[in-house]
Design brief:
Layout lengths: L1 E4 L1 H15 L1 H19 L8 E6 L3 H15 L3 E6 L7 H10 L2 E4 L5 H7 L2 E5 L11 H11 L4 E5 L21 E5 L2 E2 H5 L1 H4 L1 E5 L12 E3 L2 H7 L14 E5 L6 H12 L5 E5 L3 H7 L4 E3 L10 E4 L8 H10 L5 E3 L2 H8 L2 H9 L3 E3 L3 H7 L8 H12 L2 E4 L5 E3 L5 E3 L12 H14 L4 H21 L21
Parallel strand pairs: 1-8, 2-3, 2-5, 3-4, 5-6, 6-7, 7-9, 11-12, 11-14, 12-13, 14-15, 15-16, 16-17
Antiparallel strand pairs: 1-10, 17-18, 18-19
The structure holds ligand NAX, adenosine-5'-diphosphate and potassium ion.
Adenosine-5'-diphosphate (ADP) binds next to α17.
């Protein structure tokens, strides 16, 4: 599991490390790690390689200057552009000067040409002391840096992202790699397009025992959380999931959703709705009936994909939401819920677990008072006010539960932005709920599996949500 922290948490642990090891030692470790990352990525020979440092007024700039001094020691040609010459880290500046680096101010007329010819650009404008958006001079330099083909390396964080939320307001350094210190900041997981590859270097800070602000699944952690079928398993012990989806207008949603569930876990899928014939034609292993009341026992329900939003659909949703088992509500089910919030409140009062899986538009329908500009805060708030676990779909799917735990999904690709892929996801997550995973884990593991399936389908050159079925690999050997 990847764990990410807030600036406040990082600062608390940093204070302990500072008290023990001292400022200079920590900064030496941090800047050495940046230099080592650059040296590893820049093809040999190193002497003469053109490195530019963008240096802000805090310790982040100090890190960049010391890293520049190390690289100068390998013979690289290092130029620092200082944003606030009078407030630049004095030790770092002296170290770079001693090493033979060139030091200019940000408005030096030679600056744009130097940036344009750089082979490596190191962003030391701001780190965890950032209050975005970037000031004009910093934004100007970073805009120039982003327009080059140089290797772009961010120190601690790409300047321009908000460290605790990943929000990007205005210009942001577009890093190929971010070397971060002590622990991964939440914003780095969310603003992945700006952060590039994230390399975490402990530099003597120990986050052990600190509760993560946000977690993220990895292939390894997924292997650990997926319940393996026991040798004595039978079709009932793997978890039975009930699917209420599809309508005469949307038969495909039922087939896609059942497919997601069938391909995620062994056990049994019980479909209940008007598309029983279509479902069984594609998934003969599913048991299909016309009404959920006839479906028999299940351990979790999925309700909503393509079910319609009027008449009989409302009755069906109401019936499912009255059940004690965990219920995942998606798509049309969410649209109905937006008009009938009391249904959700009743489940909350009864202590019945619910998972909601909206995309942005559905989210705004169900939670019209919650702005989506800070997506992490939005999904947390939605979970808090609804009492449900909320999975907010998107490029970076975010998940929060009512207890305050949050997760971000790191798998997937924009290949998944195709009609019906959300229907498959709801089947996947429903299947994991039925297998007994708690809602936050079921949603996180399901989003991760779905994302990996999308990546595999993309590699295979297959388009269409149904292609995900063949790439869903929830068996321990198939993960990764
Ligand atoms: N405390 C320490 O000893 C260590 C600090 N480290 C580095 O120090 C960083 C934190 O240093 P600081 O607390 O000095 O903070 P930063 O250097 O991250 O940022 C603060 C400075 O940036 C300026 N700034 C803030 N918002 C800005 C904006 N929107 N546009 C332009 N300038 C802006 C502020 O005026 C301030 O001078 C970490 O991210 C890390 O890189 C590491 O060297 C490890 C050890
Ligand atoms: N740009 C993207 N990058 C990664 N994943 C994406 C992107 N756009 C959409 N997705 C994923 O694709 C799925 C789309 O779901 P949804 O919008 O509900 O589709 P539908 O309603 O057609 O089934 C979600 O899992 C979402 O996270
Ligand atoms: K930075």
């Amino acid at each position: 599991m990847i764990e990410a922290y807030t600036v406040e948490q990082i600062r608390a642990v940093e204070a302990l490390a500072l008290a023990r090891d001292g400022d200079a030692t920590l900064m030496r470790r941090a800047s050495f790690a940046v230099a080592a990352e650059v040296a590893e990525r820049v093809p040999a020979p190193h002497p003469g390689r053109r490195v530019v440092l963008l240096v802000g007024s805090g310790n982040n700039g100090g890190d960049a200057l010391y890293a520049g001094a190390f690289l100068r020691g390998r013979g690289m040609a290092v130029t620092a552009l200082l944003l606030s010459p009078e407030r630049t880290h004095a030790g770092g500046r002296a170290a770079l000067r001693r090493a033979g680096g060139r030091i200019l101010t940000h408005d030096d007329p030679a600056g744009p040409g130097i940036i344009a010819r750089a082979e490596v650009i190191i962003d030391g404008v701001v780190g965890i002391g950032a209050t975005p958006p970037l000031r004009a001079a910093a934004a100007e330099l970073i805009g120039q840096a982003n327009a080059t083909d140089a290797l772009r390396v961010a120190v601690d964080l790409p300047s321009g992202i908000e460290p605790d939320t990943g929000q990007v307001r205005g210009t942001c350094f577009l890093a190929d790699v971010t070397v971060t210190f002590g622990g991964i900041k939440v914003g780095l997981l969310i603003a992945d397009q700006q952060a590039g590859t994230v390399v975490n270097v402990p530099i003597g800070m120990d986050m052990t025992g600190r509760p993560a602000e946000v977690i993220a699944m990895t292939d390894g952690s997924l292997r650990q959380v997926l319940p393996a079928p026991a040798p004595a398993a039978d079709k009932y012990s793997g978890g039975l999931v009930g699917v209420v989806a599809g309508s005469p207008g949307y038969p495909g949603a039922a087939v896609l959703c059942v497919g997601g569930a069938v391909r995620t876990r062994p056990g049994m899928v019980r479909y209940a709705g008007p598309q029983a014939a279509a479902v069984v034609a594609r998934w003969p292993e599913a048991v299909a009936v016309d009404s959920p009341a006839d479906a028999g026992t299940v351990q979790a329900w999925v309700v909503g994909p393509g079910m319609g939003t009027e008449g009989q659909s409302i009755t069906l949703l109401r019936w499912v939401l009255g059940r004690d088992e965990p219920v995942l509500v998606d798509a049309d089910g969410l649209t109905i819920l937006a008009a009938m919030p009391a249904l959700l409140q009743a489940r909350r009062r009864a202590g019945q677990p619910t998972v909601l899986t909206p995309h942005d538009r559905e989210f705004s329908r169900v939670f019209p008072d919650i702005e989506l500009d800070d997506r992490l805060a939005a999904v947390r708030r939605a979970a808090w006010v609804s009492g449900a676990t909320v999975l907010l779909k998107g490029h970076r799917t975010l998940i929060a539960d009512p207890g305050g735990q949050a997760a971000v999904n790191l798998s997937g690709s924009s290949w998944l932005a195709t009609a019906g892929s959300g229907d498959v996801l709801s089947g996947v997550v429903g299947s994991l709920l039925a297998a007994g995973l708690p809602p936050l884990l079921a949603a996180s593991a399901g989003a991760f599996l779905h994302g990996r399936a999308g990546q595999r389908a993309q590699r295979a050159g297959l388009f269409g949500a149904h292609a995900l079925w063949d790439h869903l690999r929830a068996d321990p050997d198939g993960i990764g």
